[in-house]
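Hi L.,

You mentioned the student needs an example of a multi-chain input paired with its predicted structure. This one should do, with 636 residues in total across all chains.
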Amino acid sequence: MKYYIGVDIGGTNIAAGVVDETYTILASDSIPTKAPRSAEEICDDIVALCKNICQKAEVPYDGICGIGAACPGLIKDGVVTFASNLGFENVPFKSILESKSGKRCEVCNDANAAALAEYAAGAGKKYHSLVAVTIGTGVGGGIVLNGRIWEGFNGAGAEIGHLVTVPGGRLCSCGNRGCLEAYCSATALINDTKEAMINNPNSKLWEVSGGIDHVTGKHAFDAADQGDVIAQNVIKRFIKYLSIGVANIITLLQPEVVCIGGGMSKEGDTLIVPLDKLVADNGVIKSLASKPKIKAARLFNDAGIVGAAADIMLDDLG
Amino acid sequence: MKYYIGVDIGGTNIAAGVVDETYTILASDSIPTKAPRSAEEICDDIVALCKNICQKAEVPYDGICGIGAACPGLIKDGVVTFASNLGFENVPFKSILESKSGKRCEVCNDANAAALAEYAAGAGKKYHSLVAVTIGTGVGGGIVLNGRIWEGFNGAGAEIGHLVTVPGGRLCSCGNRGCLEAYCSATALINDTKEAMINNPNSKLWEVSGGIDHVTGKHAFDAADQGDVIAQNVIKRFIKYLSIGVANIITLLQPEVVCIGGGMSKEGDTLIVPLDKLVADNGVIKSLASKPKIKAARLFNDAGIVGAAADIMLDDLG
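Structure written out for the whole complex:
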């Protein structure tokens, strides 16, 4: 059995895990990122963390075949060209980590790592291509084609949240109008839920959420589930816009799997079944003999570690 | 020098050319398709055509390294799963052509072949990834990533004309509303031009086109060029919608080059410069240090032959 390490570098914490060839995490731990500081200092801490988790996993550090790291930001060919919450600009992270760790290393974007994790060990297991749509504060994603991340020539690909879905529509944080993210992020769903509550004082949403200041992305699903028509309409609209984004991804790429991730994917069939139905109703997709499968993500907090490990592992296995 | 043959199979004619490693067509000829008839009969005629053009090119047929064929329809792994104007359904075209020709063969979709031609020998030469957007009666396209066509897991990828661009918008032939094709095909431009003429009896469009029954996709560009504000508005709207489609392709894939093909690409800078400006104004794209290049296609009638030849040639060169 071969062993790898996946490192998930966030703005607040760095988590790492020893991962075997079956994508099982044998041991993991985390340390504070303490950003902003130099990549050299961060890599020193990562190497110490790696040695520590090797001990926990009872795998000798010498036996580790490679280290994959995932971090937010723009990354191309091992260089973090820009990562605002790490304060990195054009940092050759891969080569710094390689020299500090003495291992072959890879570095990729965290959203791409999550997509690769789903491809290798989650919703896309046994398939050859997958596009992940991750719904959180914003909407992100990753593209895996023939087992490789497609990150775009400049590392900026798969910005799924900024697909213009409603020209001239809602203002997005990027400055555009009508981005998918402005309709289908958890943030947008929360705003829509609040608006529906204000307009409908009798909606169950009030009771389910415990008041306007406590609304989360889950409450509209919960109230809809309890038969609240107002909440059902909020969800219906949310899924309608999501279906346009997913249908456009399919029309362009026809991946074998589209995987919906982020906290909302825990809604499972409540989200996936109506989404699948709307996408299947698309003029072009309707006519396909063989359609992409739409699935909920399976890996959650582990996606960064598993995906980062998969990145170096798949590279290793050719 | 190695020699290959590219075959462009259309509903009416089959064109073939002997192509060298520099993508130069040494000799070409065409025969009628006589569809619908069996793939065996068509392949017999293709082999005779190939031997004929070899004589014209003074290249021995024995010296041909492989034959690539492009045809309309859905194609996956050498099988034409569906091609309405050839009357093919699940025809193992690659293996039939291989057994008839005694050569290694490939078969790909004609829009993908055109994209590969631009990648190998046209607007994408020297770049590593390209998405072609081909504007004709409809809007089609092809995706080339790291020198390979990405046709989707089911062969149905790159249906760029059916990206939903205006939800609830114009009805498209596919049954959807708001497809890019409904706004940015030559057909749509002609309809928009006619409508503008009817609403504006004093527009120069009347003089330039010679009347409503003679309108082509070129007339709005010509009248706009002569300062006709009505025509300028038609073109402005056309390019605005096209820019949404192109920006969405870039947001998702970040190819090194987006190539605009079809008859309209002959407008060159008149089309490309304002398109580029609108795309560059997109919130996400604006912030990129390194942006995809938007270029007009360079290969026209030869794209099918060159692309089909490139398909087998790139496969041969690994």
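You could point out the following to them. The CA atoms of residues 112 and 142 of chain B lie 4 Å apart. The domain at 3-120+301-316 of chain B is CATH 3.30.420.40 (Nucleotidyltransferase; domain 5).

Best wishes,
N.
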